[in-house]
Each structure stands twice: as structure tokens, then as C-alpha cells.
Amino acid sequence: MRTPIQNRYDFVFLYDCTDGNPNGDPDAANAPRLDPQTMQGLVSDVCIKRKIRNFVQLHKKGQPGFDLHVQHGMVLNNNILTACEKTDVPVFEKKEAKNRPPEQIKKLQDWLCDTFYDIRTFGSVLSTGQNAGQLKGPVQISFSRSIDPVVSIDASITRVCGTDEQKNTEMGRKALIPYGLYRCHGFVSANLAEQTKFDETDLLLLFKALCGRGIPKEDFGPSMFDDDVSAARNMSARKLVVFKHQSRLGNAPAHLLFDRVSVKRKKDVSAARAFSNYDVNVNEDGKPTNVEIITLL
What's the whole-model pTM score? Predict the structure, then answer.
């Protein structure tokens, strides 16, 4: 039996990308995402959640309760159909499923949350197919934004052999940025965790995916970025600051807590090319007494 978390959490997560593409935009030939006004780099929340899912799949493979609803090649409606079979809930035609009684939807949601880590964590739209309603997950992650503007480079690459006899060589393109330090914010709701049964084990796994450990006394292990290294993407977790509230609803506004984490490029650096080119400070002076600041990285 899972015991949902009883505290609200907010967190600031910093990570960087060196000579790679942190998140390509399919509408811009897979070029790195940019804010066209400020030229700061952007990384979508979906990108970060995909890396968390991949981490869970690798490190919890085969363990009950840690399957993934959203994964490559998965037909989502089949999972809802399986939930009907496992819970003895009747299978309806598509039109009838739209009017499924609330008590049946609750039964399906309970099974899906108990089975799939990503539903328990991020929620899901389950109203398709056999219709298990909708769940808003307790963990919400913002878009990431680079601290400074980034330069998007479109590099040409060549290959010494062709794909057939008519081509002796071929050319291609690779989009990248020289360097970018990105910041994103996360929110963990104890109230929404009550609905999905998101518990302490799930929370520590989330933090471990982000930075390699779930609690300060734990030794570091691999993070989600270590499992995702490629020639086109070299990313590293740099800072994870967690704000733990004593209550379920929270004891301070999240934005005021986030303001306590400042990231500034050093004055003698004209163009940042490493994390060491920045000063990162966590201000604990005058913090609310009922909010604990935990620096995991």
C-alpha cells in the first residue's frame, strides 16, 4: 500500500549542454529551440520528462509499479484496455465508453497509477479508447531557459562512403550550440499526490533521475543525462536545490523561493563556455522557518 507524500516541494534545476543540441525543434529543421526575442535557449518540459522516463525504464526495469505508460512503440489505448481486463471493468464500444460511470473510471485509474510510474508522477490524458478519464500529475516541470543567449550553429558534416554505387560520398548537417547553462523549475503537489499515490520512493527516484541521488547523504550515481550521452548531445546536471515545505499546501510562494537561487555569469567572462564561468548562490538568509532548503547537487 502506497503512502502519498505529505509535503509540498519546489525545486530549481540547472544543467548545461556543451557542443550539442539539447532539444531540437522539429518545426525548424531540428535546430536548437530559441526564444526569438532574447535568443536564449529553450528546452521543453516534455524533453526533460522523456529523459526521466528513460532513466526509470533503465534502472527499474521489470520491477512492479515502475512500468511506463508513454514509451516508444506503445499503443496507449491498449494499456487502458489491459486495465479493464485486470480490474474486471466492462469493455465498451467507443461511444459507450465516453459515458463510463465515475466509479469504473476510479477503479481503472487506481490500477493504472499503481502500475505506471509516469502516470503516478506526471498524470495523463486517459479519456481515449476505453476511457479512464484524466489525471493531473503531482509533478509539474517548466520549460527550461538558458541563463544567457546561445548561438545556434548549423555545421556541415561529410561521410567517406555513399549509400549506393552512384554516390561516392555524402554530406549532412548537424545543429548545435557551443555552450548553454539552462534553468528549469519543478513543482511537487502533495494534494495531487493523494490522487495518484505518488509516494516518497517515487520522489527520491525523481531526484535521482535529475542529479544522481535522492538524499544528501546518498552517494552519487548516474543521472538521466549519463544514460543519454550521444555525439549530438552532451549534457550534465549542475545544480539541484529542493525546497521542502512543512505543510501539504506549502508555506511560501514558489517564486520567492526560486529567487533565492541566483545564477550570474562572472564579470571577467565575455562568452560562457563552461559551468565554471558562472557563480551560483543559494541565499538562506531570512528564509521561512517552515521551509527546508536541501541542496542535492
Answer: 0.92
